Amino acid sequence: MFIVDGLSVLNTFHLAALEVGKQFYWQLGNFRVHGQVFLTSWFVIALLIVASIAATRNIQRIPRGIQNTMEYALDFIRDLAKSQIGEKEYRPWVPFVGTLFLFIFLSNWSGALVPWRLIKLPEGELAAPTSDINTTVALALLSSLAYFYAGFSRKGLGYFGNYIHPTPIMLPFKILEDFTRPLSLSFRLFGNILADELVVAVLVLLVPLFVPLPAMILGLFTSAIQALIFATLAASYIGEAVEEHGGEHHD
Fold it and tell me: Does the keyword Membrane apply (predicted)?
């Protein structure tokens, strides 16, 4: 605010134009869906499909290139599922755990490596799919459905015995745990990815040279860790659902 000849003149300096909360919607009949989330999610899914086709179209005995990368990822996911679910039960769950990990991993990294903001939308802006709470809640609910299905398919109605093991006093706590697990999974992933994108965006707008680079590199590291945590916890919940009462994981 400056005073000039007794008149007050307001000068506004736009140091940053960062908006949070605006969304680009698609109207499908009576439903409004987040179009920006679908666009970025389809992009990540397309990358996974292309990488899978490229890795398997000409399989070599000695893997190299994309085939070597995908086989390394498969070995990593198989070891993760085996350690959390158990040696006897893990194999059917490798595709599910692997899909979770790879989708979240690529989604997180897309927020840092893909210049989404160069693509203009009528409202809102494109960003990593996992920076939207709708995506992370959907992934968390899928994980919950997976461990319920694992428990029922393994034990039938005997699965409900988990709720009173080792004592019936645990019943309300086990029921509460079924609600807190998806909340914890979804908000942890959403909060970390959104916070990372906001920090980098603010630094780029305020100090657009080399200062944001360390934050971007750290963001790539934390994004990978968040994908690993989500997949590990999902596999761990499935392992708990299929283990016998009083038993241990079969490692």
Answer: yes
